[in-house]
Amino acid sequence: MWETKYEKSQGLTDTKLSYCPGCAHGIVHKLVAETLVELDILDKSIAIASVGCSVFSYQFFNCDAQQAPHGRACALATGVKRVLPENIVFTYQGDGDLASIGIAETIHAANRGENITVIFINNAIYGMTGGQMAPTSLIGQKTTTSQDGRVAEVHGNPIKISEMFATIGGVAYLERVSVYDPKHVINAKKAIKKAFQYQKEKRGFTMIEVVSTCPVNWGMTPVDAMKWAKSDMEPEYPLGVFKDKGAE
Amino acid sequence: MWETKYEKSQGLTDTKLSYCPGCAHGIVHKLVAETLVELDILDKSIAIASVGCSVFSYQFFNCDAQQAPHGRACALATGVKRVLPENIVFTYQGDGDLASIGIAETIHAANRGENITVIFINNAIYGMTGGQMAPTSLIGQKTTTSQDGRVAEVHGNPIKISEMFATIGGVAYLERVSVYDPKHVINAKKAIKKAFQYQKEKRGFTMIEVVSTCPVNWGMTPVDAMKWAKSDMEPEYPLGVFKDKGAE
Amino acid sequence: MDTKNIKVAGFGGQGVMMFGQVLAYSATKDNINGLWFPSYGPETRGGTANCSVIVSEDTINSPVFKNADHLVVFNLPSLDKFKDHVAKNGLVLYNSSLIDKDISIENALSIGVPINDIATELGNIKVANMVMMGAYLELTHLFSDETIEAIIKKFLGERKANLLDINKEAIEAGKAFIRKMEVKYA
Amino acid sequence: MDTKNIKVAGFGGQGVMMFGQVLAYSATKDNINGLWFPSYGPETRGGTANCSVIVSEDTINSPVFKNADHLVVFNLPSLDKFKDHVAKNGLVLYNSSLIDKDISIENALSIGVPINDIATELGNIKVANMVMMGAYLELTHLFSDETIEAIIKKFLGERKANLLDINKEAIEAGKAFIRKMEVKYA
Amino acid sequence: MAKVLMKGNEAIALAAIKGGVDAFYGYPITPQNEVPEYLSKHLLANGKVFLQAESEVSAINMVYGAAGAGKRVMTSSSSPGIALKQEGISYIAAAELPCVICSVMRGGPGLGSIQPSQGDYYQATRGGGNGDYQLIVYAPESIQETIDIMKDAFNIADYYRNPVMVLVDGLIGQMMESVDFDKPVKERKLPEKDWATTGTLNHPGRRNIANSLYLDPAELEQHNIDLQKKYKRIKENETKYELINFDNPEYVIVAYGTMARICRSAIQMLHEEGIEVGMIRPISLFPYPEIAFDKIPKTIKGILTCELSMGQMLDDVLIANNGRHKVGFFGRAGGMLPDPEEIVEAIKNFTERVVK
Amino acid sequence: MAKVLMKGNEAIALAAIKGGVDAFYGYPITPQNEVPEYLSKHLLANGKVFLQAESEVSAINMVYGAAGAGKRVMTSSSSPGIALKQEGISYIAAAELPCVICSVMRGGPGLGSIQPSQGDYYQATRGGGNGDYQLIVYAPESIQETIDIMKDAFNIADYYRNPVMVLVDGLIGQMMESVDFDKPVKERKLPEKDWATTGTLNHPGRRNIANSLYLDPAELEQHNIDLQKKYKRIKENETKYELINFDNPEYVIVAYGTMARICRSAIQMLHEEGIEVGMIRPISLFPYPEIAFDKIPKTIKGILTCELSMGQMLDDVLIANNGRHKVGFFGRAGGMLPDPEEIVEAIKNFTERVVK
Amino acid sequence: MKVPKGRVTFNDELCKGCGLCVEYCPTHILYQDMKTLNKAGYNIIKVSEPDKCIGCAFCAMMCPDSVIKVEVNK
Amino acid sequence: MKVPKGRVTFNDELCKGCGLCVEYCPTHILYQDMKTLNKAGYNIIKVSEPDKCIGCAFCAMMCPDSVIKVEVNK
Ligand SMILES: Cc1ncc(C[n+]2csc(CCOP(=O)(O)OP(=O)(O)O)c2C)c(N)n1
Ligand SMILES: Cc1ncc(C[n+]2csc(CCOP(=O)(O)OP(=O)(O)O)c2C)c(N)n1
Ligand code: SF4
Ligand code: SF4
Ligand code: SF4
Ligand code: SF4
Ligand code: SF4
Ligand code: SF4
Ligand SMILES: [Mg+2]
Ligand SMILES: [Mg+2]
User: Fold this and answer.
1) Which range marks the domain in which residue H49 is found?
2) Closest ligand 2 atom to the C-alpha of B54?
3) How confident is the model at residue D45 (pLDDT cuts 50, 70, 90)?
4) In this structure, are residues F66 and B83 in contact, taking their beta carbons and an 8 Å threshold?
5) DSSP state of F166
6) Is residue G40 part of a domain?
7) Domain assignment of residue B109, given as a range
8) For the stretch F315-354, what's the b/e string if a residue is b when 16 or more beta carbons lie within 10 angstroms of its beta carbon?
9) How far apart are alpha carbons E102 and E120 in whole angstroms?
10) Which of C71, E327, H55, H66 is deepest in the core (most CB within 10 A)?
11) Which residue's alpha carbon is nearest to atom 5 within ligand 4?
């Protein structure tokens, strides 16, 4: 007798994802969607889509949503959460959106301890706009605006968001995860679930940084991109829990 | 036979300072001015005045200057320094300017390791605009926009700029000092001098956070303000060196 | 009563703004229209500040006026700044403690009141502006003692309620000073 | 030669944009005017993409045209999208490997070329667009082999220089296919 | 309630509360600081939301979020602060979210000064954000009128699902006047906010989305056409203006806000000298009261546009006048306020301004 | 050099290099990305400055800094990105610093789309930053004209100490055309930049300051008057436009940029049908070519304003026309591009648009 | 004939042919069919030896587009 | 009569009467003269016992407005 072990989550709509073949955005979407269903908060949730490849995520998450100007997702989330404190509010942001143009909004939402969850997709590149350098791009990484590779003296070093946010008072949970193989996908799911659980319990600001991929702009096959995430991204962006108020 | 031990610095113009009686802004101005003279860099220096009570500092420092939009001093400084790498470029910013609206520009200038010096005046308030809450205001501190005192749950906790910036790669020197008595004034001078020395040596981004005062908006006499800086500010903002690449 | 355009000026810290606001509040209390607005020069912090007040039984149109019916100045820079903008048959009150020369302005009645000295005698330099208020009211009779007292109570609030008496004394002292002079205006 | 408005459309990844650019580059090389512009629908990633090309001896005015003199389509959705916008006496070239029905469009000559099959035979599906290029040139004679070859060299650059021959073969195969059909156009 | 003496900025804040504001997000800037200061005290005390954002950019986007959630939300700022809000305002207008934006104008350009000015007429009426959108812009002349408009502003915003800007010069913000808060507000039947993102729990079977992205050009064009239709409806129904001394004027002044009040006094002075001058006082800047210009007698010698700026509303006057009369211009800038006597002079020496 | 086929955005970048750009500061946004991408490669390679800022706000303020330091500096962006730059632009204009701003317009409002549009005419010509300031705005119709203007733009900016905006729709940015980079540029005698903040070392006895703050209203007003005088001078000397088929037209079209090119084809089609239509093609949007309207024959039946927006340049047409002729409007939005046939129809069915 | 532990079914029209499922299937029973395109123009995935499926769902977990349904035999 | 170690001179017009110099003078020889206003309207600072000045310059260091010049006897 057959029992379903895995199928498309009810937390996702029927709309076809707009991501390129093999892009890890899709994997993270599934993890968030499954979490909202499993914690039974889908119908209380308001997703804040940012500007990046995930701009259309308001069409994909099967809940209410707002689409934010580039970098301002945490400001919208704050605006929503302060007037609807009983709802679940989360943002889904890329590294250009969060770490570059949106760093101020994100830091201050964190510092205020806004009771929201931030899903931060670090793929070391500006995917949507065609592969420009992100503050998270690796030293030596070739992008359309660092065509001879990123140089610390000229472009600065890759910015470490989780390390920086660990110093901020209002942060309740902060973990960096990856999705480059099934084991890490399972772990990423745990982290995301914990973050939303904390939000349910009104513990404060939670953020999960996902070391992700951009096969197209990395110029790799999806499979090679997963391997590169492990071999090159992870050493620069070590995985782990950076802050856990529950454990303190 | 009489010998001059102390007099007004040549690094300051004859223009009368616009600060309120007993405001520590004036003390820090002197320290910066003396440093520029002693390191013989006054005539190579370009000061970036921010928006705050120190907005007029472009009239006070006896060198070339630019007046920046609120929060953007580090962006102007970057613009200048990148085209004039042999000049000395520094910003003078309040906590509203740097820690609130200007946090993104400051973090990214630091992360890029821009070879500039930032003088950061933390007086836990918006002075220029009449005493609104700053991200640096202390818990319980009454301001015109937190009239019953700052509450962590509503306004978040005081933001720790030096602690946060210590995690950023491009930072070469970072110290938090105070000027609430002659001993600390002397120490603050040392720190500021070291920061500019590092800039001369092209070591990267340097910042000195000065725990300062705002007698008028704190509702205190200048003398009491100095005492409060010691008794209430310093415990929340411990003094010391947070990063020193030279020492690493 | 026809519309009065009033200009009050002095050092920051001399209570210039409060002087003007007391008049505007009093007008409102007496169910006529009051308008007040401040003008801080570039030299706000320290230096001079001034405010314009209009009280009128009709609706007030322009908040801006060229010449003041009443000019009340607390220091010399302010006098120099505004003395050429006094309306015909205007009144000029000046602080003779800080302006130690006789002032005469044509087609206007100008009177010096040594408000700092009087206030110091009363034992509180801070009420100098209320000495001026007394002198002003004695000459213009714009508002009743009850009205003014009620407004000043409001200004002092609980925290400074204890200062009410000294303020009243100051007003009375200002009035007395004018009475002694035996001048009349309007 | 008078102005030619050309529309090229297909799946992303079928070399549609390159096909159009080769024409515009060739025009420039032959010292006439070339204009190219892409149009990515909402469905950019995967799905269909198309571009417009204009080649002309005169200065080019409107970059936008209603009807194409030449329509070159690489898949069925593209054909359906543009088949009603072909100019009188126009030419329609379509990929008969993916469009397995005979197409006839009035006042236009429409020809199917099985470019996928031909390219696969040549051993590289990626050159299907160059098979189409060959067929297109054989019918329109817009540019000489030298011109096209030079441009393709440029596209391949050093890194892919080794692919020049297979591209030339593909073009030749496309031409041969048309010659076999013994159709003429213009 | 009897009249009270109140500062313009505080009156704006209290009127907003009477207008039912649920949340305020803003960032300090002179000369509007008393607005947030007053609200910080009274909103929190009543379980409403007050939050000082880290910047104007953040503040306007918090407004976006709360407006999208269906609440009555406002922000307030001044010249450079409004400039920073332009992107967010464009998004809010595009997503058709209702909110109220208070703009207290100071001298510009750049950092300029903190003195009163009307230099942000373009900023308010011509956007500066991207694309074809419009705010509903009201420019009251007194604190009383500011109160009456503020109280109605939230209704208008909700009715049209459009941001409303209340535009005053710094003088109105800093001035104190005797005012009455109890004037009745126009009744409006407001549609239910069934579009608000409050969680599908509250509207089963329908996902609500606040969005301004339309990658399909045809859809985006249709969206723009719909917006233009809405703006037309707004123009037909919400245009506000006042005609002053219009019996048989020799000249007509066009002025708004504080400048209009100064002109009122000038018109009186001129009347006393036997010169009759009328005035069109636009109260809504968008929609602009072109229709008022059709009421101008053919016989007048000219129209004098008066601004505390260098010729911004002048555009709308020239468009509305459409060549019918000579148009002259009087402007002061940078915080300088003319006295009525200057306007009197300007009328006496009326000269046509060559079309700019 | 022979003609080359080049994409508009890359042509902008190369033309900037030929124009002597020293530094570029920008932030990625479609559809202008090839500008920074091209410059990142070629500026750094030649010891010049290229820096991708963390945001548009930061980028425009880096431009402020470098411009204040006396360098030839530019930025480039698109609709929402320009919106974020409005405060900085106002400061730069107020401090009278020269720079070049490239705006590649996409569909709006809000996030809108990445398709070509002209919806940012207001944004370019009416600021949106605070106060009374003006950019010099050029709107070329082809990549060739874009190149010629870019090369001159830095000279114009330096000559007037004013920001120059080069405004193109996304089509010009994304299109490829055969172009020539060697057309000569107008000679201008440029004043020395003795105001630049390069350290007193380089100008002993004088402190140079880049500033826009004037707390004294009288000073700020004088500054505004001086700016207006400068804008008048710019209007007299830098107004650019083209008259097309103006012999004896029945109608006159007013259009710029890509829309003008579409109209050129329409005019040909109409000519073939025996209907003569002229066109005023503004090349400078500020200063706007009012004078061109004086050249319109009294006899025409009407003026048709054509835009890839919902009626923004229409303001300037109505102001310039000043009631002399009937004015009609044709607009598309959101990335929709009309074909010439649509313009032909619009002329044949010309109807006057009631003054908006 | 023995029943396999697991069973996978593909919603082919959602597939983008990225190959992640193929890569991460521990039993290597998935392959990309270069002959069959779906409507979007992608080559879809087929199962070579269905009976070898262990129902681990690794393929499904790694599939960004939720193409794969996995059932296990209980 | 012995010469003092230090000598302080005040540029009175710059003084804002904040009192910091008075507070931080270790020998307590400075006081604010409530009778004398400078042009800006501030009460200026006077020295009560000049011969007690040790020339430490603490007053000058703490003075935000660079009012004080300190000389020492060498
Ligand atoms: C104000 C503004 N600036 C720039 C852009 C252009 N833009 C769109 S997405 C994007 C960056 C996307 O990168 P990231 O956030 O890393 O997301 P990813 O696509 O990599 O997932 C940029 C710069 C914009 N839409 N708005
Ligand atoms: C864009 C913008 N927003 C707000 C303001 C108003 N403003 C002027 S100074 C200031 C804050 C000053 O506080 P801080 O930076 O701490 O300096 P301080 O006066 O305390 O030394 C603000 C909000 C402005 N001028 N520009
Ligand atoms: S561009 Fe990169 S990040 Fe964006 S969808 Fe494609 S692969 Fe994913
Ligand atoms: S307001 Fe405060 S910070 Fe500003 S000058 Fe006065 S005392 Fe100093
Ligand atoms: S992982 Fe999913 S999308 Fe990718 S090939 Fe397999 S089934 Fe298709
Ligand atoms: S369930 Fe496991 S074994 Fe079966 S196909 Fe998927 S990955 Fe392979
Ligand atoms: S130098 Fe030292 S002792 Fe002399 S007055 Fe100053 S603080 Fe006092
Ligand atoms: S410290 Fe300076 S300003 Fe303050 S009172 Fe002493 S001398 Fe005057
Ligand atoms: Mg990214
Ligand atoms: Mg401060």
Assistant:
1) 6-72
2) 21
3) low
4) yes
5) E
6) yes
7) 42-247
8) bbbbbbbbeebbbbbbbbbbbbbbbbbbbbebbeebeebe
9) 12
10) C71
11) B19
Domains F4-183+191-238 and F243-353 share a fold: yes
Number of domains, chain G? 1
Tens of pLDDT, residue by residue over D142-155, are 999 999 999 999 99
Q: Report the C-alpha gap between F117 and F104 in whole angstroms.
A: 9
Chain H contact present for C11, CB below 8 A? yes
Residue F40 at interface with chain A, using a CB cutoff of 8 Å = yes
pLDDT digits (tens, 9 = 90+) for B215-245: 999 999 999 999 999 999 999 999 999 999 9
Q: How far apart are CA C74 and CA C96, in angstroms?
A: 8
CATH architecture assignment, domain F243-353: 3-Layer(aba) Sandwich (3.40)
Strand, coil or helix: E77: strand
The CATH number of the domain where A221 resides is what? 3.40.50.970
D45 interaction partners in chain E (CB closer than 8 Å): none
In this predicted structure, what is the pLDDT of residue H2? 73
DSSP state of A126: B
Strand-pairing partners, residue B164, are none
**Which ligand is nearest the CA of F80, by number?**
1
Looking at residue G1, its pLDDT comes to: 56
Tell me: pLDDT of D48 over 80.
no
Quickly count helices (H) and strands (E) in chain C: 6, 6
Structural domain count, chain B: 1
| pLDDT for E356 | 47
Is the per-residue pLDDT at D46 higher than 90? Answer: no
Q: Hey, is the C-beta of D45 within 8 angstroms of any chain A C-beta?
A: yes
Task: Judge: H64–B26 Cβ closer than 8 Å, yes or no.
Answer: yes
Kindly provide the residue ranges of all beta strands, DSSP E only, lying in F72-174, ordered along the sequence: 73-77, 99-105, 136-138, 163-169
Please, are residues F325 and F300 in contact by the beta-carbon 8 Å criterion? Answer: yes
Does H70 contact ligand 7 (Cβ within 6 A)? yes
Nearest to F339 among D28, D60, D65 (CB): D65
Segment E276-298 mean pLDDT: 98
Report the amino acid identity of residue B49: A
What pLDDT, on a 0 to 100 scale, did the predictor assign at position D67?
97
For ligand 5, whether the C-beta of G4 sits within 6 Å is: no
By most ligand atoms within 8 Å of CB, the mutation choice from B57, B93, B95, B128 for ligand 4 is B128
Q: Which of H62, H66, H68 has its CB closest to that of B185?
A: H62
Q: Is residue H23 part of a domain?
A: yes
Confidence of residue D47 (pLDDT cuts 50, 70, 90): low
Rounded CA-CA distance B31/B34 in Å is 5
Residue A152 CB contacts under 8 Å (≥ 6 apart), including other chains: A139, B113, B169
- Alpha-carbon distance values, E55 to E30, E263, E317 (Å): 14, 37, 35
Region D115-126: mean pLDDT is 94
- Tell me the CATH number for domain F4-183+191-238: 3.40.50.970
**Tens digits of per-residue pLDDT, A60-107?**
999 999 999 999 999 999 999 999 999 999 999 999 999 999 999 999
SS3 A97: helix
Residue E227 dihedral angles phi and psi, to the nearest 5°: -60, -45
| Chain F residue numbers touching D27 (CB-CB < 8 A) | 5, 178
Among A210, A217, A218, name the best residue to mutate to test ligand 3's pocket (greatest count of ligand atoms within 8 A of Cβ).
A217
F98 and F155 in contact (C-beta within 8 Å)? no
Predicted pLDDT at A248: 76
Q: Does A133 touch chain F (CB under 8 A)?
A: yes
User: The domain spanning residue H17 has which CATH number?
Assistant: 3.30.70.20
Report the predicted TM-score, pTM, of the whole model to 2 decimal places.
0.98
F247-259: average pLDDT: 97
State whether residue H16 sits within 8 Å of chain C by CB: yes
| β-bridge pairing E302-307 and E251-254 | parallel
